């Protein structure tokens, strides 16, 4: 099998502790690599949450409402960390992703509805992200946007299909470093740190349609269904790659250590995600909002608007971050769709498998990416597409989170590892937050601006 072969080749590499003595600088580099290697699906999941679409949402929030919206990052952190940890535990305990568990324990029609909506939302999101990346590349070096759409789209899909799994995961981890571009951008913004901290620590709601619409957008962007599916499936995938690992329902030994690893990985990934999102909000608040530029509709537009306020270098950093995060997020979006469809159909799935061993799985992955590329050739407005993607994601998140909470509590699924205690209740609190978010979004659609 390809996954065993990949795992075997990976284990032949000499361990860090047995390497030859090297120059003084080498241990520093090696320790950083080891630290990055120790982090897994949680880091990639958290970083992919800050995709170009998310960057556009956070930029708009900061530009429109200033520092006062920063508190949402403190609110969403424990909620997203809890639901992602539960997703990861389900994958690690059962050896199946969310769709794999739903197809085994719930009616087929429910699975078809959830998976279909996920595929549609992810594909539209891919299209929007590719468009944003192309606009950022055009901003940096000129040329035609459609060429960049093809380049980024085909490269992302081909890398997932043809790269060795271990090497591919390593590439994704290194791509997470591109998000530090938004921390660097803060250096070019004249931040009023007193007001910024007040906005983060002291919520001061404004009773307006725009304010609550922005909160709904932030919640929908931060807590997204594709993240649940990806992290659960990646935990299951790691067991297929590592011959020493088995689902915890089959091999109970080491469960506490695995749960500690999952919690640390998830907390670090979600904290990283929220730190970057907060950096984007603060940067936009300190530059765009302060200059009266409150109508920013995309991440590329935010980058362009930074030039006259914070300088050309700040614009360049912001645009490079958009491209880097897109290269990270598109594989997660396409991969999550492929895992959901493949597990739901009980096909052989996994990025560690050779294409001929999981042809249907890779076909779904390529189809999602291909449609995402094709949508950029249509007259569909990318901002409208992104809006409806957010609507679908928000609506889909509710039943998926409810299903996930039920699965995590079922003894016939989780055996002795059912989710309980504070994590369980925090998961339901996260679900309730999404229910209220979708209800508010629905009310906004029907009531409209007053």
TrEMBL record:
GO biological process, one term: iron ion transmembrane transport
Classification via InterPro entries: NRAMP_fam (IPR001046)
GO cellular component: plasma membrane
Main location: membrane
MF term (GO), any: cadmium ion transmembrane transporter activity
Region (Disordered): 1-28
Keywords: Membrane, Symport, Transmembrane, Transmembrane helix, Transport
Residue ranges, compositional bias (Low complexity): 16-26
TM stretches of this protein: 109-128, 140-162, 174-191, 211-230, 266-288, 317-339, 359-380, 386-407, 423-447
Membrane topology: Multi-pass membrane protein
Location in or out of the cell: Membrane
Stated name of the protein: Divalent metal cation transporter
């Amino acid at each position: 099998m390809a996954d065993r072969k990949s795992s075997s080749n990976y284990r032949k590499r000499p361990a860090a502790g047995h390497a030859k003595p090297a120059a003084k600088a080498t241990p520093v580099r090696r320790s950083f690599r080891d630290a990055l290697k120790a982090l897994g699906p949680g880091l990639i999941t958290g970083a992919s949450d800050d995709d170009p679409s998310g960057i556009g949402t956070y930029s708009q929030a900061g530009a429109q409402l200033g520092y006062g919206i920063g508190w949402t990052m403190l609110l969403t952190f424990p909620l997203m960390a809890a639901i992602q940890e539960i997703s990861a535990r389900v994958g690690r305990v059962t050896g199946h992703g969310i769709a794999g568990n739903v197809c085994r324990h719930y009616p087929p029609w429910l699975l078809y509805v959830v998976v279909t909506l996920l595929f549609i939302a992810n594909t539209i999101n891919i299209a929007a992200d590719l468009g944003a990346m192309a606009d950022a590349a055009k901003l940096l070096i000129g040329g035609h946007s459609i060429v960049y759409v093809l380049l980024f789209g085909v490269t992302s899909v081909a890398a997932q299909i043809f790269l060795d799994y271990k090497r591919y995961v390593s590439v994704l981890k290194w791509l997470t470093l591109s998000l530090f571009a938004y921390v660097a951008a803060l250096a070019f913004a004249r931040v009023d740190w007193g007001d910024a901290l007040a906005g983060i620590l002291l919520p001061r709601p404004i009773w307006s349609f725009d304010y609550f619409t922005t909160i709904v957008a932030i919640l929908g962007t931060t807590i997204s269904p594709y993240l649940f599916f990806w992290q659960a499936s990646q935990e299951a995938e790691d067991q297929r790659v590592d011959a020493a690992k088995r689902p915890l329902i089959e091999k109970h030994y080491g469960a506490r250590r695995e749960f500690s690893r999952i919690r640390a990985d998830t907390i670090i990934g979600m904290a990283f995600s929220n730190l970057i999102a907060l950096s984007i909000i603060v940067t936009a608040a300190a530059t765009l909002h302060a200059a009266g530029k409150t109508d920013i509709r995309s991440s590329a537009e935010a980058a362009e608007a930074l030039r006259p306020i914070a300088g050309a270098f700040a614009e360049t950093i912001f645009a490079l971050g958009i491209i880097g995060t897109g290269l990270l997020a598109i594989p997660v979006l396409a991969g999550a769709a492929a895992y959901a469809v493949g597990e739901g159909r009980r096909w052989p799935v996994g990025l560690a498998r050779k294409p001929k061993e999981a042809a249907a799985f890779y076909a779904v992955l390529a189809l999602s990416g291909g449609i995402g590329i094709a949508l950029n050739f249509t007259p569909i407005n990318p901002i409208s597409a992104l809006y409806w993607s957010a609507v679908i994601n928000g609506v889909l998140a509710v039943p998926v989170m409810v299903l996930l909470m039920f699965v995590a509590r079922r003894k016939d699924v989780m055996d002795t590892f059912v989710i309980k205690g504070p994590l369980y209740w925090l998961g339901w609190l996260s679900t309730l937050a999404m229910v209220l978010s979708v209800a508010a979004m629905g009310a906004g659609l029907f009531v409209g601006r007053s």
